[in-house]
Amino acid sequence: MWYEIIPGFAIMTACLIVPGIATAQIHKWTNGGKEKRIARHPYQWYLMERDKRVSATGKYYESKVRL
What percent of the chain has pLDDT over 70? Predict the structure, then answer.
């Protein structure tokens, strides 16, 4: 019957979803709790470079102010 495909469909769906979620979490973990920034336009790249200079650590995801 038609419902016999549900377990296989569920397994395939999980196998496609898990890597995307895992990648996002790994990026968040490695970038100090912030999501990965992507520079699609030159202006965004300049902002990321500015953030590196302002932070004084060479990392765009770290703040200069530490509480």
Answer: 90
